[in-house]
């Protein structure tokens, strides 16, 4: 996909990776609708990039439907919908049910809602692209964050299913799977001395993610991996699952992480 002239929706567009995508897509010549729960943040980003701003809670299907309707009304048929919004609370199995449910709604169901809203029009036109920000946690796991890992695995499974089911009908899907990226979410994680050095060694900038996304969309790759080492980790996991699990347990112990 070449982005020049394309209509693009980006959720979580008020900060972090989403903001980076809005800025890069606009620079590439796309017509962008940027959505975020933080209305002030997304209005700022839109004002600086020429994007259309929208406030939305992606855990609410009606809000996602409204985003699609607004984009089509103001910009035209959607070529690319980027389900990027996500949350990543730390914690294990004892997290409250309400937290598990909220993470599920934002990290997984928001992708379902976007596909439901976009696919009918895309299928009717015989083309369309869904970009889902999954995270390396969807391919591997995220130490100390059970709900995040589980819901990101589910998001990856959904992306696979959509690609298999609709790929022969003109629908392209990419799963963006970065590891650590310099965002507010990461700064909270890096505040833990036990993991700060580990995080620092693997962190890239938002602009690096946006560059990987543009290249991945051009190549229409299913997996977009801004951190090349993630592919190696994924291959090791696939070829010797037990060894990979043992290595992750060892890493967890070395970092002093306890749940």
What are its keywords?
7-stranded parallel sheet, Rossmann fold, 10 helices, single chain, 259 residues, 9 strands, two-stranded parallel sheet
Domains, number: 1
C-alpha termini separation:
43 Å
Major β-sheet annotation:
7 strands, parallel
- The average pLDDT value, as a whole number, equals 93
CATH topology: Rossmann fold
- What structural category arises from helix and sheet content? alpha/beta
- Multimer state: single chain
Radius of gyration: 18 Å
The backbone outline, from C-alpha atoms, is globular
CATH class: Alpha Beta
- Number of alpha- plus pi-helical segments: 10
Strand residue percentage: 5-15%
Give the SSE layout:
Elements (H helix, E strand, L loop, with lengths): L6 E5 L4 H12 L3 E6 L2 H11 L2 E4 L5 H14 L5 E4 L13 H29 L2 E6 L12 H21 L4 E6 L3 E2 L2 H7 L2 H9 L1 E2 L1 H14 L3 E2 L4 H11 L1 H15 L4
Parallel strand pairs: 1-2, 1-4, 2-3, 4-5, 5-6, 6-9, 7-8
Helix pairs in contact: 1-2, 1-8, 3-4, 4-5, 9-10
Task: Summarize this entry quickly.
It is built from 10 helices and 9 strands. The protein has 259 residues and is an alpha/beta fold.
Give structural notes.
There is one protein chain. Helix content is 55%, strand content 14%. It has 259 residues and is α/β, with parallel strands linked by helices. The strands form 2 sheets. Strands 3-2-1-4-5-6-9 form a 7-stranded parallel β-sheet, with helices on both faces.
């Amino acid at each position: 996909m070449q982005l020049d002239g394309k209509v693009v929706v980006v959720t979580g567009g008020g900060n972090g990776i989403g903001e980076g995508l809005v800025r890069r897509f606009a620079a590439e010549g796309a017509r962008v609708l940027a959505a975020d729960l933080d209305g002030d943040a997304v209005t700022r980003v839109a004002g600086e990039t020429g994007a259309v701003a929208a406030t939305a809670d992606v855990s609410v299907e009606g809000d996602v439907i409204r985003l699609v309707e607004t984009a089509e009304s103001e910009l035209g048929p959607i070529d690319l919908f980027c389900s990027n919004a996500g949350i990543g609370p730390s914690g294990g199995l004892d997290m409250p049910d309400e937290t598990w449910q909220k993470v599920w709604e934002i990290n997984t169901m928001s992708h379902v809602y976007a596909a439901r809203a976009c696919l009918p029009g895309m299928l009717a036109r015989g083309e369309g692209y869904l970009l889902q920000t999954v995270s390396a946690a969807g391919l591997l796991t995220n130490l100390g964050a059970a709900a995040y890992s589980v819901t990101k695995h589910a998001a990856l499974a959904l992306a696979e299913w959509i690609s298999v089911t609709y790929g022969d009908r003109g629908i392209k899907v990419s799963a963006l799977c970065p590891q650590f990226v310099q965002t507010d979410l990461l700064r909270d994680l890096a505040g833990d001395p036990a993991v700060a050095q580990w995080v620092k060694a693997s962190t890239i900038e938002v602009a690096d993610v946006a560059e990987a996304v543009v290249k991945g969309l051009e190549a229409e790759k299913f997996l977009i991996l801004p951190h090349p080492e993630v592919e190696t980790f994924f291959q090791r996991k696939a070829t010797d699952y037990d060894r990979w699990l043992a290595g992750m347990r060892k890493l967890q112990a070395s970092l002093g992480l306890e749940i």
